[in-house]
Amino acid sequence: MPKKPYESDTTTFIKSLFKKNPELREKQLKARSIWWDREQDLTERSDLEKSNVTKKPYEYY
Questions:
Q1: Counting C-beta atoms within 10 Å of the first and last residue's C-beta, which end of the chain has fewer, N or C?
Q2: By the 8 A CB rule, do 21 and 27 touch?
Q3: Predicted local distance difference test score (pLDDT) of residue 34
């Protein structure tokens, strides 16, 4: 008898949630595109990298 692969409670919950609400996947992708899937502003990125303060090797002196 083959063993069933382990599946955590969290994974089981998420799978059942997506089965009950198929439109949830679409909402998830839309929300992701708002925050993550967008063009990078290279000048802003460059400015942020220039503004970094160098860290001391040991901070407790």
A1: N
A2: no
A3: 86
